[in-house]
Design brief:
With 750 residues, the protein is mainly alpha-helical. It folds into two domains: 403 residues, no CATH class; 156 residues, no CATH class. 62% of the residues lie in helices and 3% in strands. The protein contains 32 helices and eight strands. β3 and β4 form a beta hairpin. α26 runs antiparallel to α27. It starts with 5 loop residues before the first helix and ends with a helix.
């Protein structure tokens, strides 16, 4: 028998404690972007999140909201940290069990493979991220690895009387946890294969089948929560499943309509490449020049483990291989991702990454096994080489912790929470604000429902405004949105073409009906994050992260007083800027966070140009410098700030600024051109010639570089060189009549 000993459990609990401490130390303390804000809010108010509704997650989340520590957000985030650590615990136990089964290892020799698998998994890129925020994936991983462990336990004791009880428990547990995430069921084929390979008659026992069916129905009945709670009209009630038909639509995610897997939305090569890119970035042990080696050594270890597993224990190898293939290749086919996803999709494949680490552990077991065999031939003592190998593989397993720690530490990250605060805080009382997607909506829902901030404001999501259930909620639930549409009219809404040939989308039609019904009684706003401004451009007044929709159609404008008040008095810049105005680099900002932050920079950018147009260059420079501090890689702001320095005569700032840019972009002709302008203005003509010539080498069609170089030669009295430069340009662009007339007038040569 390979059942876990008391010592195995003690080591497993130590691993659990270490990993939980790491997760708590890096856990988000407030809302993240994407679904986390919605899950925290719906857990707190017992709401209904987006389809398929995740009822069990919400109910467990509500229990965690009652814990007596920290903030509500931290409590719900902690649920993922705890689930992730529990998943690591059972990963350890599975690997130890397989090491005992396959290699007959005992004691510390079996613990080392368990530790290798556990630490590689715990500190892998995506799994660690899932364990630091309110999401369903860490809990789903825990249930999957728990039930797989239960399947292995059943396999060991199946001949004993009543051993099928654990199978029944697994059926109930998996059906219940569909209420966390449907992907939890991906473990079923592997468990079923274990049963068939162990005793196929078990799978056809009528009593077991009947009991399993009954418990499956009982488990999935947790979704009745959605029906009950939806009819009580919580503030967040996505898809509003108030009837059996609506509940079914929610469960099958009709709102998202994934389409057929037989119509590929991108080439399979692209989709597999996406998966592989995510996979290769999971277990990196170090960066820099050795990053490639640090990425792929764990795969070599896993290949060794898979080989030994297949040789020594075919039954459990077949089950684990099935599980890995369903969670990787199966999901690649089923999910059918496009080549233009709105976000990274690595979290969908986390189960594949997770179970792959078990083979890493078995790779360590195989190395220990071989070390022990070779030791018998060479020396009397067996343990020193095995211990040395163990230390090496354990060191490799903990290296990802040090590599990924900075990227996964979320404790200082308040960007999402403050984005919601900053969008709501400046609004007038009883306002309506139009938002677009998850990241400009969920943080607002979170801060309204959990922190109770600005609940007088109605957040109206334009994406959801394409559905009749949401339009009805806007009309009937407080704070209400004024609409002339009746409920029956809402049910009939669909895109249409009017008499002038204009196509009206449902949400666009509702916005105009809202404006008509409101009659400018409630303040109306639209977030700067909305890409389609509903053809309201001539009514918009920029006031920060939002545009106010104005009664007058006189063109897009800026409200200077409200902009400055929002930017310099109202907004909470924690996570973006330090109080002294410098960039806040205390934590890692991923591409999504960087893009959202750039909205602040873009607002400053627009405001700076408005100051420039009104002749206030000092304020324009102040705003553009701040834009660059907010978003240091905002290229448009970089170039604009340099232009502003030159235009304002601030060459003392312009020259070092462009020299810094040159270090970053040595092959950028515009940077060379701007330096040439500065050198020409300060009469360093030789340097100007060098800069303009380099700009032309980098871009042969750079007209202004040719003209500027000709001007410098004029200043230097080198008329032949000037003429040669202009003629060189005319060879590239012979239709440039301005330059040709200039040459004709000054040289008389055709």
């Amino acid at each position: 028998m390979y059942t876990e000993t008391k010592k195995d459990w003690i080591v497993a609990l130590i691993v659990f404690a270490i990993v939980l401490a790491a997760y708590v130390e890096t856990m988000a303390l407030t809302t993240p972007f994407w679904d986390g804000g919605e899950f925290i809010a719906t857990s707190y108010i017992l709401g209904v999140p987006h389809p398929p509704g995740t009822p069990l997650y919400v109910l467990i989340g509500r229990v965690f909201c009652l814990l007596p520590f920290s903030s509500i957000a931290a409590r719900v985030n902690f649920m993922s940290a705890l689930s992730g650590a529990l998943a690591v615990l059972f990963t350890f136990l599975i690997t130890v069990k397989l090491a005992k089964m396959s290699f007959k290892l005992q004691g510390w020799k079996a613990w080392v493979p368990g530790l290798v698998a556990s630490f590689f998994m715990a500190f892998s890129n995506t799994f660690w991220e899932n364990a630091t925020e309110a999401e369903v994936y860490a809990m789903s991983s825990f249930i999957m690895v728990l039930t797989f462990w239960m399947g292995l336990r059943w396999m060991e004791v199946f001949e004993k009387e009543h051993s099928d009880k654990s199978l029944v428990v697994m059926v109930y547990l998996l059906s219940l946890c569909v209420g966390i995430h449907l992907g939890t069921l991906l473990v079923v084929p592997a468990i079923l294969l274990l049963v068939l390979l162990t005793d196929w008659r078990t799978a056809v026992r009528p009593k077991l089948l009947a009991l399993s069916a009954a418990l499956f129905v009982l488990g999935v009945s947790v979704h009745l929560y959605l029906l009950i709670r939806a009819n009580l009209d919580p503030a967040i009630n996505e898809a509003s499943p108030k009837t059996w038909q609506d509940l079914w639509l929610v469960l099958k995610r009709d709102q998202y309509k994934p389409g057929s897997i037989f119509v590929r939305r991108a080439t399979f090569g692209f989709q597999f490449g996406m998966f592989w890119d995510y996979f290769a970035n999971q277990f990196t042990m170090w960066g820099g020049k050795l990053e490639g080696l640090g990425k792929y050594l764990p795969f070599v270890l896993a290949a060794v483990g898979a080989y030994y597993h297949a040789v020594f224990n075919r039954r459990t190898f077949a089950a684990l291989l099935t599980l890995f293939l369903f969670c990787s290749l199966g999901l690649i086919i089923y999910l059918n991702f496009t080549d233009h996803e709105v976000r990274e999709r690595d979290y969908f494949y986390v189960a594949a990454f997770h179970f792959f680490t078990i083979w890493m552990g078995l790779g360590a077991a195989g190395m220990i096994h071989e070390a022990l065999k070779s030791k018998r031939r060479l020396l009397k003592a067996q343990w020193p080489i095995a211990a040395g190998v163990s230390c090496l593989v354990l060191a490799a397993a903990v290296l990802p912790y040090f590599h990924f720690h900075f990227y996964r530490d979320r404790t200082e990250d308040r960007v999402a929470r403050n984005f919601g605060y900053n969008m709501l805080a400046p609004l007038e009382k009883d306002a309506i604000v139009l938002t677009n997607g998850d990241n400009d909506t969920f943080p607002l829902w979170y801060i309204q429902e959990v922190e109770g901030f600005r609940k007088d404001v109605r957040v109206a999501n334009l994406s959801l405004m394409r559905t009749n259930w949401y339009i009805k909620q806007l009309k009937t639930q407080e704070p209400r949105v004024p609409l002339t549409l009746s409920e029956s009219a809402i049910d009939r809404l669909a895109p249409f073409r009017d008499d002038q040939g204009k196509v009206w989308q449902t949400n666009e039609y509702v916005v105009y009906d809202m404006i008509t019904a409101n009659n400018w009684q409630k303040p109306l706003y639209i977030a700067v994050t909305v890409p389609d401004q509903m053809r309201l451009e001539r009514r918009l007044v920029l006031e920060g992260l939002i545009f106010r929709i104005d009664k007058e159609e006189v063109g897009m404008r800026i409200d200077e007083d409200k902009m400055r008040k929002a930017m310099f008095e109202t907004y909470d810049w924690d996570g973006v800027l330090h109080p002294d105005g410098s960039t806040d680099n205390r934590f890692y900002k991923d591409i999504n966070c960087t893009r959202l932050i750039q909205n602040y920079a873009a607002t400053h950018f627009t405001f700076a140009y408005w100051y420039r147009q009104t002749g206030r260059m000092d304020k324009a420079i102040e705003l553009m410098e701040r834009a660059l501090a907010i978003s240091p890689h905002f290229v448009d702001a970089e170039r604009a700030l340099g232009d502003f320095y030159v235009e304002a005569g601030r060459l003392d700032k312009a020259e070092p600024f462009y020299n810094d840019l040159l270090a970053q972009y040595p092959a950028d002709p515009d940077v060379r051109f701007q330096l040439g302008r500065i050198h020409a203005t300060t009469d360093r003509l030789d340097l100007a010639v060098e800069d303009f010539r380099r700009a032309i080498e980098l871009d042969r069609s750079f007209r202004y570089a040719y003209l500027a170089l000709a001007d410098v030669y004029t200043k230097m009295g080198k008329m032949a060189e000037r003429e040669a430069v202009l003629r060189a340009w005319l060879q590239i662009q012979p239709d440039d009549s301005e330059v040709r007339e200039y040459l004709d007038r000054n040289t008389g040569v055709q």
